[in-house]
Each structure stands twice: as C-alpha cells, then as structure tokens.
C-alpha cells in the first residue's frame, strides 16, 4: 500500500517528532510511506475565519499533491475532518475541482482510523509502561466520529495502564481561533480539563491532535503538575527497545 503522510501545519512547525512517529509506525506495519514535499496548509483556519477563496485554492493544491496515493494519513482529527467534511462544500458541483475532491478526500484518514479500518490492526506491537489517560478532541469526536478507535489501540499497548478521563467529551477550550478570540473562556475550559486530568493520577495525557495537547499542556506545565502530553502516534510507535 502506497501511503502519503499529511503532516499538517502544527506538527510540521512545532511537533515534527509526531510525523516521524507516524512514519516509523506505518513502516513497521509494512506500509510504503511517502512525504510529498509540496504539501501545504489544508486551509482550515482560512475557511473557519471567512477566507473561502483562499480555502478553495488550498483545497485545489491539496488534491493535486495527494492524487495517486492509495491512502493519505494525518496525525490530526482536525485536519482530516477539514478535508473530508469541508472540501466537498467548497467545490462547485460538477466542476473539475469537485471531481478531484471526490477522488482524494475519501482516502484521507486520521491515524487511528487508518490502523483499524484500513489495515485492520489493533495491536501495533507497541510498548509503553506508563499510566495514561486519553482526551478525545472535538473534531475527532464530533467530526470524524472516531469513537473508541484510539482507546482500542492504547488498550493493546504492552505495559500501558489506560485510565478513564472524567468529562472526557468536554472541549479543552482550544478551538483554533476560539482561543485567540475568547482567551478568558478558553483558559477557564483548559483549567477544568487540567483538573480532571489530575484526578486520574495519570503520568501522560494522550490525544490525536497536538493543537489540543499544546493548549492543555501549557496549563499542565504552568501548574507544575508533572503530567506529560504525548500524541497517540508517539505512544504507538514506542517499543521496548526504544525505552
């Protein structure tokens, strides 16, 4: 299977280790992974703030860059949801752009979707001997409807103790530009999420979106909680040899 990694802006700029973890994991599972260097932003921020034409241009570029692959994997429920849910709404019905989106968008998968739904695997051979709690981000929960896919993968990681997160389905307060436009509300929501994380006694907070982990992690760090944040891909890529 010829797979392309769609790294996303946040990961490319701030969390390159997550992209490396995805490549390592997929290659371990027998995938031929490519990284198209011409890829850019998916346009989510532009469309969400009213710059529709810019979003259309970026959607067109995305379909050109990722055409021809068997699958496109993104370590982000947020950006995968943008391509699958929003791109079809940007194109004019019957246009070449609409046809290109119809061809590429269904092949775009968030990592846990790809592992469980496409590769049909739940035990990826990972080892991570730590107490972990999982935060289901809003786009992965309500947009892609990932359900229990990420936790099923975590439950098969050797040595990992998965503990439930109280109020797991509540937003962490990031919400992209929401955190910028409504900082006080965003910070209050982040504080609530942090309090619930601390109640679990977990060493590590895991999620499928680094944007949310960045927001929550800032509060965890400022409060000197000692709780680490880790993307799902990094835990799944961990092995006993790497510990």
From TrEMBL:
Signal peptide coordinates: none
InterPro entries: Cys_rich_dom (IPR004017)
Residues covered by the Cysteine-rich domain: 3-83, 132-216
Pfam families named among the record's database cross-references: CCG
Domain of life: Bacteria
Protein name: (Fe-S)-binding protein
Organism: Nonomuraea composti
